[in-house]
Amino acid sequence: MRNLLVxxxxxxxxxxxxxxxxxxxxxxxxWTLVEIMGIPVQTSGSIQDAHLExxxxxxxxxxxxxxxxxxxxxEIEKKGQIEFGEIGLTRMACQNAAFENKFLETLKSVRxxxxxxxxxxxKNGRKDVILKFQ
Length: 134
Known about the structure:
Elements: H1 2-15, E1 31-36, E2 39-40, E3 51-55, E4 60-64, E5 69-76, E6 82-84, E7 88-89, H2 97-108, E8 112-116, E9 119-123, E10 129-133
Antiparallel strand pairs: 1-2, 1-3, 1-10, 3-4, 4-5, 5-6, 5-7, 8-9, 9-10
């Protein structure tokens, strides 16, 4: 009986590990925005491209909105559900402020995600793909 309790405790700890969450697979690379609301986004291959990087231990995303550095906490509730908290950003004057504002506005409306084939898709409450990252 004691061995069963110890085994159950070990399984519980490993099942709650941050590495069991899907966002742990998203770490270690910048996810470049390639599509917003079905419209392709021009990319340059530079750090100025709109992108996100994930820290699954801190549950924080950071990156670039196209001009300003951005950061936001996020929560993964159930499988396939994600929500971003308040988005913070630097306040530099930008030529492409309209694009960045649209990106951040769209990011706030994300409720679901899917990850497959090197693409990270964020979806709204109707499960329409609104942001596509590669």
